[in-house]
Structures are given as C-alpha cells and as structure tokens.
Design a protein that fits this description.
Elements lengths: L3 E4 L3 E6 L2 E9 L5 E8 L2 E10 L4 E7 L2 E9 L6 E7 L2 E9 L5 E7 L2 E9 L5 E7 L2 E9 L5 E7 L2 E9 L5 E7 L2 E9 L5 E7 L2 E2 L5 E4 L6 E5 L4 E8 L12 E9 L8 H6 L7 E2 L5 E5 L10 E4 L2 E4 L23 E3 L2 E3 L50 E2 L4 E7 L9 H25 L7 H9 L9 E9 L13 E8 L14
Parallel strand pairs: 21-33
Antiparallel strand pairs: 1-2, 2-3, 3-4, 4-5, 5-6, 6-7, 7-8, 8-9, 9-10, 10-11, 11-12, 12-13, 13-14, 14-15, 15-16, 16-17, 17-18, 18-19, 20-22, 22-31, 23-25, 23-30, 23-32, 24-25, 26-27, 28-29, 32-33
Helix pairs in contact: 2-3
C-alpha cells in the first residue's frame, strides 16, 4: 500500500496505515519541541533533527522514538557541543565534547558522564589522558602540564593518589606514594641539583630534614699541621638533633681563609691596600676571614722548603703529632711566624698593632700612627680573591663527604693580609728599636726590618705558619627545598717543622 500525506495542526508528512511513516515534521503540543526527520510505525526512526525552543538541538540517529546512535548535540545556554554516540537520549559511548571555555574532552561516556578512557585538555592547556569515573580522573592516567611537567600514575576522585611518578621539566624526578595531590608515604626524589632523597614524606615534605654540616674526627674543631703537610677533612650531615641524615648527592665545597685585617687609617699600608678589599666572611672563631687558596694536588714525593731545611711530605695523611712541630704547644691565641721570627703581641702597656676584624670592623691601632717620617709603602696591585680553588666539590654519600688530602699552599704574591702583617710588624719593630737607640746613644734605628718587609712582598716558597680557617659549605644548586645547610668550620694551626738533623759523619780510623 502506498504511503499517503497527512496534514494536521501538529504533523505534516508521510503516513502508512494511518501512522507517521517516512519523512515528516512534527510539532509537540507544548510548542517547545519540534522534530523533522524520518519516521517508522509512528515513531521517530532513522535520521532526524529535534529542535528546542531555546535554540538547542540534536541532529542524528533515532531508534524507535529515542535518540540512539551517532549524533550531534548543541546547548544554546552554554554553547557547548557534543559529537558522538548516544543511548536513550543520553551521551553514552565514544564522543567529543567541546566546551565554550576552550577545553575539550574526547573519550568514553556513560549516561551523560565522562567515564572510561579518554583525554581532557582544559582551557589552560593542561592535558590528561587516562581513566575517568563520573567526570573525574580516576585510575591510571598521565597529566601533562604547561610548564613541561608530566605526572604518570594513579588518580582517585580527580587527585593524585597511590603510586605515581612526577617528571619536572627542569629534570627533577619523583617516584613514590601520593595522597591528595601531595607526596605522602615512601618516595624518592632525584633533584635537578643532583641531590637524592629516598624516604618518607608527609603532605609534600620529607620527614627527615638536614640542617647542618659537622666535621668528623677533629676535637673542638681545631687541628695542627706542619708546613706543606696534607691533611684529611671528613664531614657528616646532621639534623637538629645531631643525628646523621643519610642523603646522597648534596654538593659540598671546601675552602680556606685567613684573618681579615684592617690597618689604621693614616699608615702607608692603609693607602696601599685601600679599595681592594673583598667581602669578609664571618666565622665562629670571633673574627672574619678573607679567602685563601687550597689545593689537593699533593705530589707523592713532594719536597717542601722550610727555612733552609728540605722536608719530605709524608705519604700518610695523618695529622702531625706534637713531636713534628717546633716549639711548645700551640697557644690559644694565634701567632704568625715569618723568616724564622714570630710576630707576638706587644708587651704589657704597649698599644696593640693587630686586631681581628670583628662584626664592627675596628681599625688596627699601631704605635706612632701617621705618615710623617715614613717611607711610602709600595702600592699593591689589585687582585682577585686568591687563585681559583683547585679542589673540586664532592657529593655526599649516605650523609658523608671527604677530602682525603688537602694542602694549604704558599700564599699568592702580595697576599693582602700578609702584607698588612709584615708592614705592621716592621712598624712596631722600628718604633721599638728607635726607642732603645734613643735611650742608649741616640743613634738611628736599623733598616733591617724594612728590608725584610720589602723582600716579604715577593712570592713565598712555603706556607706561612699561622692560623687558617677551613670551611665546608653546601653549594647544592638550586638548593634542596630552597634551604642551604649551615657550614662547618675548622681552625687549622700551621706550625713550622723541625729541621731534619744532619747525619753524623763516621770518624775515619
């Protein structure tokens, strides 16, 4: 029987057996919905378009009166669009939703909800590919962030939870347990600086936290060594309670310094050294220091000149015992030896000639300060901080670091603190001799000291006895957790070695 055409207030289109069948347009009684498309046995079936009064619409497949199959949906209020599979009028199956804010989801749907495997890219460009449950990231998935960071792992209700791996764009890498988008539980972080933390985390922070470096095996942070003798420095990393923190890969740097001295204004040496100061470094020993070079280049059979004796550098790195050092036990206060003589504090009642540079940096008072009658001090060529440190930094292993053999070498030419020491010592010596001379016969003071000062400005062949400060600092870059450890300090007293006794010749018979 051929199809006929029906015309009513609601329907205009083909019919069969008095049922809508074929192509037709139907307007619902509420005037909000309107269907235009194919019919079968009185039901929407085939391809059609369902329009709504607010401008929204669906166009696609219908089955037995229901939206079912592949189609396209547009929401007039939100301007969102969906293209994909439908089931009984709902988003169900594979589909692509494009949101007005620019975000896009492509993947599986279940009864109008993102559920199953899919990819969501938000308006900022962050992209997640993995499993969803009720619109939220849930299960295994990968998130790629705009800054280049990538997370691979488990998600629960839209948050990182369970086991996961975060790879930062800068190279930092974390693998371990998560909870509520934070590191929680056992995990290892390999920091961009080379530092490695492997342990427990709570709310994004490690449970074990180091705060300082300490020197191991040196009593009261003081030691004595002889000229040209190598020595060992070993350090450990500790927390506030003094417990060892067994972290790996923290970069540690060793350096040295000598007292920062300031001559009194008005002296020739003041003019000669003015304007070439480097920034002094505070120490726990009550005075500041300026840099002094260190080296770990210790020849196996090196010979070091001390006075007019030649001394062998021992192969052992053991620090010198008291019998290796000339003179009595070291005094608490520092003295500096030069050319076989010791610079010592002036006798009681005399004005001190040297003073360590403390926090307020007082000037050094020298008897007879002033320029009259003084020969001008030769200017010191401006130089950088003493020659670059030759000792490479080390990485901590299980919370420890070690330099098995380091050496305090002879000073750089015209090293400023030694120039000041020499000049002030000569000034004090000249005044003392002048006073003695006047008390006897009024003769002029000797010029031997000034000649010695002139010669001391040349390059010295051996390490000058005196007090040196060794520092071990945390130079991990960038700092782990944005914090740098407190450095460790050691006071090293370099002593002049005894001269080797000359062998006695056998008497001839």
């Amino acid at each position: 029987m051929a199809a006929s055409v029906a015309r009513t207030d609601q329907y205009l289109g083909e019919t069969k057996h008095q049922l809508r069948d074929g192509f037709g347009v139907y307007t619902y009684g509420n005037k909000f919905f309107k269907y235009e498309g194919e019919w079968k046995d009185g039901k929407k079936h085939g391809h059609g378009k369902l329009s709504m009064g607010d401008g929204s619409y669906y166009e696609g497949e219908f089955k037995e009166g229901e939206i079912d199959g592949h189609g396209f949906r547009y929401w007039a209020i939100t301007k969102n669009t969906y293209s994909g599979q439908f089931k009984l009028g709902e988003l169900h199956g594979q589909g692509v939703m494009k949101y007005t804010d620019g975000s896009v989801y492509e993947g599986e749907w279940h009864r109008n909800k993102k559920q199953g495997y899919g990819t969501h890219k938000d308006k900022s460009g962050v992209q997640y590919t993995g499993y969803f449950y009720e619109h939220k990231m849930h299960g295994e998935g990968v998130a790629e962030y705009l800054n280049g960071d990538v997370y691979k792992g488990n998600w629960v209700q839209g948050k990182k939870q369970g086991h996961g791996e975060l790879i930062h764009a800068n190279g930092t890498h974390y693998e371990g347990q998560w909870r509520n988008d934070l590191f929680n539980g056992q995990g290892q972080m390999q920091h961009i600086s080379g530092f490695i933390y492997d342990g427990m985390w709570i709310n994004g922070a490690p449970t074990i936290k180091a705060c300082k470096i300490i020197v191991v095996g040196i009593e009261a942070n003081q030691m004595q060594v002889g000229q040209g003798r190598p020595f060992r420095i070993e350090v450990a990393i500790q927390n506030e309670d003094g417990d060892l923190v067994e972290d790996d890969g923290r970069e540690l740097h060793v350096s040295a310094g000598f007292k920062h001295l300031v001559p009194k204004e008005g002296l020739a040496i003041y003019k000669a050294t003015k304007g070439i100061d480097e920034e002094p470094i505070p120490t726990p020993f009550g005075y500041a220091i300026v840099g002094y070079p260190l080296t770990d280049q210790v020849p196996e059979d090196a010979m070091i000149e001390a006075g007019d004796a030649m001394l062998s550098v021992p192969k052992s790195y053991t620090n010198l015992s008291g019998s290796d050092i000339s003179g009595d036990e070291a005094e608490p206060e520092s003295t500096t030896e030069r050319d076989g003589e010791a610079v010592v504090p002036p006798p009681e009642g005399a004005t001190e000639i040297l003073e360590p540079d403390r926090t307020d940096s007082p000037d050094i008072a020298v008897p007879g300060g002033g320029e009259s009658g003084e020969s001008p001090e030769p200017p010191i060529e401006e130089q950088q901080t003493p020659p670059p440190v030759l000792i490479p930094s080390v990485r901590s292993v299980q919370g420890r670091g070690c330099w098995p053999a380091i050496l305090i070498p002879p000073p750089p030419k015209d090293y400023k603190p030694f120039r000041i020491l020499d000049a002030l010592s000569d000034e004090s010596g000249n005044l003392s001799k002048k006073a003695k001379s006047k008390s006897k016969d009024g003769s002029r003071p000797s010029t031997k000291a000034s000649q010695k000062s002139s010669s001391s400005s040349s390059h010295e062949a051996v390490t000058r006895p005196g007090d040196y400060v060794i520092m071990v600092c945390d130079i991990t870059t960038p700092p782990w957790q944005d914090e740098t450890l407190e450095p460790a300090y050691v006071l090293v007293k370099v002593k002049k070695l005894k001269r080797s006794p000359k062998p006695k010749e056998k008497e001839k018979k």
